[in-house]
Amino acid sequence: xxxxxxxxxxxxxxxxxxxxxxxxxxxxxxxxxxxxxxxxxxxxxxxxxxxxxxxxxxxxxxxxxxxxxxxxxxxxxxxxxxxxxxxxxxxxxxxxxxxxxxxxxxxxxxxxxxxxxxxxxxxxxxxxxxxxxxxxxxxxxxxxxxxxxxxxxxxxxxxxxxxxxxxxxxxxxxxxxxxxxxxxxxxxxxxxxxxxxxxxxxxxxxxxxxxxxxxxxxxxxxxxxxxxxxxxxxxxxxxxxxxxxxxxxxxxxxxxxxxxxxxxxxxxxxxxxxxxxxxxxxxxxxxxxxxxxxxxxxxxxxxxxxxxxxxxxxxxxxxxxxxxxxxxxxxxxxxxxxxxxxxxxxxxxxxxxxxxxxxxxxxxxxxxxxxxxxxxxxxxxxxxxxxxxxxxxxxxxxxxxxxxxxxxxxxxxxxxxxxxxxxxxxxxxxxxxxxxxxxxxxxxxxxxxxxxxxxxxxxxxxxxxxxxxxxxxxxxxxxxxxxxxxxxxxxxxxxxxxxxxxxxxxxxxxxxxxxxxxxxxxxxxxxxxxxxxxxxxxxxxxxxxxxxxxxxxxxxxxxxxxxxxxxxxxxxxx
Amino acid sequence: xxxxxxxxxxxxxxxxxxxxxxxxxxxxxxxxxxxxxxxxxxxxxxxxxxxxxxxxxxxxxxxxxxxxxxxxxxxxxxxxxxxxxxxxxxxxxxxxxxxxxxxxxxxxxxxxxxxxxxxxxxxxxxxxxxxxxxxxxxxxxxxxxxxxxxxxxxxxxxxxxxxxxxxxxxxxxxxxxxxxxxxxxxxxxxxxxxxxxxxxxxxxxxxxxxxxxxxxxxxxxxxxxxxxxxxxxxxxxxxxxxxxxxxxxxxxxxxxxxxxxxxxxxxxxxxxxxxxxxxxxxxxxxxxxxxxxxxxxxxxxxxxxxxxxxxxxxxxxxxxxxxxxxxxxxxxxxxxxxxxxxxxxxxxxxxxxxxxxxxxxxxxxxxxxxxxxxxxxxxxxxxxxxxxxxxxxxxxxxxxxxxxxxxxxxxxxxxxxxxxxxxxxxxxxxxxxxxxxxxxxxxxxxxxxxxxxxxxxxxxxxxxxxxxxxxxxxxxxxxxxxxxxxxxxxxxxxxxxxxxxxxxxxxxxxxxxxxxxxxxxxxxxxxxxxxxxxxxxxxxxxxxxxxxxxxxxxxxxxxxxxxxxxxxxxxxxx
Lengths: 574, 574
Hints:
2 copies of one chain form a homodimer.
Chain A: H1 12-20, H2 27-33, E1 41-43, E2 49-51, H3 54-58, E3 66-72, H4 82-95, E4 100-104, H5 109-114, E5 121-122, E6 125-128, H6 130-134, H7 140-160, E7 167-172, E8 176-178, E9 188-190, E10 201-203, E11 205-207, H8 212-219, H9 223-232, E12 234-238, E13 243-245, H10 252-258, E14 266-270, E15 275-278, H11 293-299, E16 305-309, H12 314-329, E17 335-340, H13 342-348, H14 369-388, E18 392-398, H15 405-417, E19 421-425, H16 427-430, H17 436-447, H18 462-473, E20 478-481, H19 483-494, E21 502-505, E22 525-528, E23 530-534, E24 539-543, E25 563-564, E26 570-571
Helix pairs in contact in A: 4-17, 7-8, 7-10, 9-10, 12-14, 13-14, 14-15
């Protein structure tokens, strides 16, 4: 969920200025526009409310909104404006006289202070107030961290007191978490000191978005369901190899209590007063990269179109959205918007490289519809992934000031060849008016018959699930499991986790497992290094490559230029 | 701020039930009753608001409330009900037709999940809703931790990138913080790993209440003032011994931005609808143990009596309240309520020992007014400390069901001998009605002429400040500085910190530095082991004994019995 501040040449400072100048609807107006009973929404500081989960049951008889997922082609490291498009489309729905509701992820605090550009949205397609969105919001991320670290403290206390469960100090897999970019915490040793402070153990911190609790919270359908998921979390193993759970540590109840308010989705709005549910933000590689199920269950009864987003590209976020999130929620998507940009398609031609934090190479701004066409193999592959799930795709061309009409036409032609609708969208610069064409295309697509289907059934053997994702989604020739991965797979099957869905942690910068391969690579095999269990969140995940779960700070962190001015206003945030 | 659930035989479960059954005033009613303009208070979830600091200036012309501090005799490890008395007195003011406002500290999350009994108040003298109070509230503690750990991350990143300031990795004194009881984090090694994750350093975590940022937040008079305090924080030294500040690390602006909402006091209420400002909770030994200055600046214009509390006994919390907090705020106290209990006075007789987490020894429930009289030396000493500052003391006898009338009479006699008003208070069992006598006594005392005075002037040399506190407040014969303490003192004087006030971190279980000495010990000297600088908070502090700044969990942490029931209600919290 990075803001692509390059879009339309609008700068980061402009985004903050636009947000500050927003004319917000009062919370009661927003609630009324959603048909939500007043007692279900609690104000929670300036411009923000939280929604009671009782809304789900109370609105069960209401007509269900068309369910629209915003996903993307394989992005450059800069991001291609997926969140911005989701927000813009929500505004576009309103602009064209339709009732749209947006459901997006909550940005992490750590990266907001690390790299310039947070979420959600940018320019004239933002969720506001953006300072609250990016700074603590209603404290959900901190609550996730508190629950996570409470479990960690109880594990070490359990060990300190003789480990009644038999948990082996050397087989504890539960680490700690904090919403900060801090590479020094990646690997640490705890329990040091002159007196006994518990076992001396090597462990470390993940950023909060990478916590299994974040994933579990996003996939819970109720507080009771969350309670069960907390209990199922596996924290390590006994010397005999038996799993030890948070329930065994007697921490699951307190963890749930710590999350009792965090499970309520946050209600905000876009610059154009479209209701925006902001909730959860799990990682998009080791976890689902989707916002919460409860937000979608509520939002789907509050308008005609519920627009949500999924992290990274369609092979990553959309695949998990379909096969993990929708499997649990029971909601069926109608339309998937695939965001494409000229710059990313040029990169997929294989002729350019883009590096995060650096400006685009000059030669990429030349008029090259041929490169766009060449790179469109990636777009075609992503559209087929959508179709494979029985969902109607719509291509959204996220326009940039450096684009040429010929390049936009090239994308439209490819979409037509694939039988998909296509719309040019200038929501970053023009807000909802710029997304009107996209809104019309999505509304049309939503009227088509669609037959949503999962990629695999619960009963499909784990290995087959993995092979299906690799071959049918990524276009691999097959899967290579390491010896360790084979063993772990066997163990999880033996322990009864074979029915779980699968989340593949691979690079998001290629359809393949190799971040340097653009387009739609063929003739490769998916290397599975490790298989891990997220029993609380409810999936098996595969490590294919190196996954960094605690970011570091750069040589000039964004935080260095963030401050208050003499009037107490924030300066330098984005 | 521990709840003395033994009071009046009311159990912890009763306190939660009483809180759940409370008939709360709507936030607008509460705001109106304080004469606060509506636009100054933002609702922040169920039963809670936050107050804009603009209130301070806007209400500057209003009459100032009588300023009442609730302090105590030297407590047993169980606590003697200071917060409960402050809350009860606030209710008593209302019960007797007076406008009271309460300003108390925010309880820590870690201990709430560690030891049964959180804050603030208990029985029929509580701040409500107590679940919100004890679980995250508006996220202020998490915001303090985020600011603290953001600075820590930027320090290690600074070192990782060649330490442009010259900061010596081995002389970094800034640690990390988390609101959890976790002994494993007391001493850790960071920066491990196969690749360079920054310098490998030995460091550790403090609980958030012990963060210098918490103390600085509580002592700030405005957001601008907080910004300056953040910049002044000393994080370590160069190889040449020069201090390096958060300003040098370029973190102070971002830290302030992270605290921008946390500096707004939280507005809650007591069970009887007395407005309660809940804000900050710094440690009572290494820091001031007082709630925030901004809460008092606001509260002092919102009623006839502003009642606040200070951690531990009068020699600890009240002394810092007078000489640190009031020095910065400019507010002058009128009355100090000294809470006394029969059980604590019996312990001060030297004939009993009380251990935290264990029931009172059976023999302490025998009728022994003689023991109460014997132990009252401690009460006399605490009353003299109040008088020394020119403030009028009132003794509040916090009644317990195991007390005898003869024992209460003994306390009243001692108070009379010291020329102090005395009132029996049954607020725990009876709410405001039980504190009516105390409210009358406080109101009378507030009409007396008082001439508040500091114990020392800014210009008084540091050594003399320390000796004055030791001899005139604690009753020591003098002070013994370790060689290290001597050196540190010289250094801080040379660096221009000689005008700062002093905070003495000693045991709270005795007037002396030895926790086993009851009553009012004489013939001893204060041993100063270390002298440290809290340049951001704005005081020098002395380490006299062992100070634990990260609690551990017991053999049966409270968290183990906390859970949600089938209806999603919290069970087992207190």
